[in-house]
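Task card 7
Instruction: Convert sequence to structure tokens.
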Amino acid sequence: MEIYDTEEEQVAALKDWWKGNGTSVISGIVMAIIAVGGWSLWHSYQQDKMNRASSLYEQIIKAEEAGQVESVDEIADKLNTNYNSTAYAAYALLFAAKEKVEQQDLVAAKEQLQLAVATSNDTEITHVARTRLIRVLLALQEYEQGLGLIADVDQSSLGGFGAIYDELKGDLYVAMGRVGEARTAYQAALSAGQSSPLLQFKLDDLTSSDSADAL
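Output:
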């Protein structure tokens, strides 16, 4: 059985429905078009932004290879100012910090690495920046600050960096003369794996020191 007996009744019913719902349907279509267009524009903007950041990153690599320290600093600043939401900004800070270390300007390297740790959105890059920062703090004899950085690390995000942090903790404890704690940290790093080739030598050195003290 047909709901409407004639084609005229079907047309009349459709007209009545359109009067009540046409505006909302048109609004929905318009909003959908705006949303799709807006997403397309946003995606295009983001892609263009990444391309510009990538171009600057290529420049900083060339400047670093050419030993153009001032250019490295300048490009790193530009990346961090204009593209700090991209991984390129964090990589640029790592490059700049490396240049500062080679110039023996550890304070400036510390500042660059602190900025990388604070602004990076990539977990792995953050760990790389933090471990390099701890080594700089070790060289600056800021041992407690280094230990504090390790203590603040989110244990759930360690990945393959656990052994590295344990070894660095051991290095800091050795520098502070806290041999027992250094040994514990080195042993933890050895158990975790992925530590440096020098780790076993560090442990052996502590053992040799203990033997010498016993004599």
